[in-house]
Structures are given as C-alpha cells and as structure tokens.
Amino acid sequence: MTPAARTQAAIDILDLVLAAARDDGPPADSIVQRYFKTRRYAGSKDRRAVRELVFRAIRRSGERPASGRAAMIGLASEDEEIEFDIVGHGAPPPRADEQASPAAYLPLWIEAELSRHVSRDEWPALLERAPLDLRVNCATADRAAMAAALAAEPTPLSPWGLRLPPDTRVDDRPEFAAGQIEVQDEGSQLIALACSPRDGIDLLDLCAGAGGKALALAAAAPGARVVASDTNRQRLSQLAPRAARAGAQIATRLLDPGHEAQALADLAGQMHVVLVDAPCSGSGTWRRNPEGRWRLTPERLDRVIRLQATLLDLAAPLVQPGGALIYATCSILAREGAGQIDAFLGRHSGWIAQDVGFEGGRVDGSGRLLTPAHDQTDGFFVARLVAAC
Questions:
Q1: Is 207 an annotated catalytic residue?
Q2: Count of CB atoms within 10 A of residue 94's CB?
Q3: Is 100 found in the same domain as 190?
Q4: Domain final position from 51, 86, 104
Q5: ∠ CA 94-100-104 to the nearest 5 degrees?
Q6: Is the domain of 225 the same as that of 328?
Q7: Domains in the chain: how many in total?
Q8: Phi, psi (5° rounding) for residue 293?
Q9: Which of 113, 214, 247, 381 is disulfide-compatible with 228, CB 3.0–4.6 A?
Q10: 41 falls in which pLDDT band (50, 70, 90)?
Q11: Closest CA relative to residue 245, chosen from 202, 277, 215
Q12: Mapping DSSP to helix (H, G, I), strand (E, B) and coil, where does residue 172 land?
C-alpha cells in the first residue's frame, strides 16, 4: 500500500468506527481486524501503520467527528508525514473548503461531570496507551516465578499483579493456557481486594459479566463460596471455560431481566459480601477504548446512573447483618461514583461507609477514585459499605 492508500484505509475504518459509535456497534479494535480479514493484500507493516493512524485520529478527536475524512484531515494538520494522493487507491488531497475535526481530549459536556480529582492536568493520561496488566492466579502460581517467566514487572498496588508493555500477547503462552495468569487491569484487581475475600464466606458478584472479578475472588479464597450472576447469557457463558482453566469453583446464575429479585430471593440476608461492579459510562477505560467518548451521551449517562441505583437497591437486601456491599464502576464521573453512594446512603439507613482496604487512589466522597494519571490504572471508583448488625 502507498502512504496515501494507507490514509484512505484509515478513513474508511474511521467511518465504520463512527457508525458503530452511533449505533452501539462493535469496538474499534474489532472493526480494524474485520477490515483487514477481507483485504489480504495488506501486509503486516501496512496493517500496523493503518491501525496507528486510526487510533491516533480517534484519540485526537474528543467530539465525534463529522466523518472519518474530517478526523484524518485534522490529524494531518498536525503531522506533515500523512500523505494524500489521488493515484491508485489513495485519499484525495483536502479541499480548501473541507473542515477538519478539531483537537480535544474530551467532549465539551463531559467536563462538568468529572470527579473533582480529574483536573485538566490529568486529561492527557486518560488517552495514553495502556500497558498490559496480568493477574497471577495466586491459588496455583507464584507471582515472582511468573514475573521471571514473563519478564514482567510487579504492579505497585495489587499483590497479584504483573505489568507488560502495551500490545504484548500472552494468550499463546503456556502460563495462560494453564490458568496461571489472566489479563486484568490492576484497578480491577483492587476491586476484588476490596471485597476482603477469605475462606468460609459467601460472595456474590452480582454483575459478573465474563467473570474476571469472580475469578480473582475464587483464586484469593479457594475455600469461599463464589456466585456469579448476570443478565447477559453470552458474557456469563464465558466464565465456565475460564474457571475450568483456572481450577476455580464458581456457581453461576443467569438472571431474567426485570425479575432479578425473584431469582436471588433465596440469597436474601445470606451473603457476607455482594459486589456490584455496575454497568457504567466506561470513562475509566478511554485509554483502551478511546472511541468510547463518541458513544457516551448525556442521555446514556442518565440511563446508566438510574440502572446503578437499581442494582444497589437490589443488592442491599442480599447482604447479611455486618456484611459488606462493594460498589465499583469503571468511571471517572462524579455522579457514577461519590454521587451514587451519597444517594444510596440517603435511601438506606444503617449502612456505614468503610475504607476500601487497599493502597492507592484518592478519597472521593465515601469511596476512593483510581485514575490513570495518579495510579497508572484504568479509572475506577470503589466504595465499601457495611450493613448494620
């Protein structure tokens, strides 16, 4: 591919990413992979170069661009090495009247929603490329041995974490096949740590998804009863093979949307710990999924905030007296974090906020906020609430 053809390919992919952001379609990474599956003529150097152009353009545009071409013209205005040329399959040069997408870290409306800790100085870190974090399965493997085998650095906050450079592959490693390691951001590992997992207790991961945190809980406390539930059949079905690989015993419950309380009624007042890792804006993962800024709207944010409140109210009766409710979101937005917990404590008397039990982050209302700039993790809000005895 010529340099101008790479530019046009990036424009084509950006148009697909924009459509997916508008219509809640697949993530940008998947779109890039699908694009090149049907274009075998593109060599590995071409694929890497186009992918880099795509993600540079996405990271540069805080607001959703009018088109992939507008995003690329904006990027080219700052990089003279990006080429346009009508020869072959190249991208035609920009016209004098064509508008370029402006550079911005965040959509304008988001600024008012940010946690008080996320100052403008922290915005660049929200879009930096993230490292690859691993969680060592402490039930079957030793972190020091895994660090040596993988040439990885221990993470500073999680006792189970290792860190490798961005884009490192581990799914072809024997340690991965043996269930000794799992890909998991250090901040996500700290959420499991906030649950204080120990043998002999009952833990419910209410919004388990594919089960990353349930696996961490089962590894930290093999003698605990871990239950993972979710309304998404496809995501929850991914847990069984992962648990088998890790040698973990995890019970699963597929919940019928709208009838969750009935399905969980037998657990009322029985659980030592309930984890609510709630659906959220995903603003804490923008360094991994920068097009997520284009998907989020004020209306969508309002919807997930209502859902979070519903899930907290669903979880509270399941906790036994003196037990803990752990609330977490992969978000840096105030209403999804400190604001959500303030509202819960206003609705439910007798609950007490405790320290989350891990180092790192900054106190944010009744919880703690982890951010890429401050903690070198994804952005997470975590709170630990204890039920009255």
A1: no
A2: 17
A3: no
A4: 104
A5: 150
A6: yes
A7: 2
A8: -65, -30
A9: 214
A10: confident
A11: 215
A12: coil
Q: Is residue 7 part of a domain?
A: yes
Which domain covers residue 278, as residue numbers? 185-386
| pLDDT, tens digit, 9 for 90 and up, residues 243-295 | 999 999 999 999 999 999 999 999 999 999 999 999 999 999 999 999 999 99
261 and 379 fall within a common domain: yes
Catalytic residue among 138, 207, 330, 389: 330
In a domain, 241, yes or no: yes
Looking at 104, 129, 144, which one is the last position of a domain? 104
User: pLDDT (tens digit, 9 = 90+) per residue, 68-96?
Assistant: 999 999 999 999 999 999 877 899 999 98
Give the pair of three-digit tokens for residue 262: 């009935």
CATH of the domain at 349: 3.40.50.150
Shared domain check, 367 and 251: yes
User: What is the pTM assigned to this prediction?
Assistant: 0.94
Residue 2: how many other CB atoms lie within 10 Å: 14
Contacts of residue 48, Cβ cutoff 8 Å, sequence gap at least 6: none
- Which amino acid, one-letter code, is at 7? T
Q: Which of 277, 137, 272, 260 is closest to 205 using CA atoms? A: 277
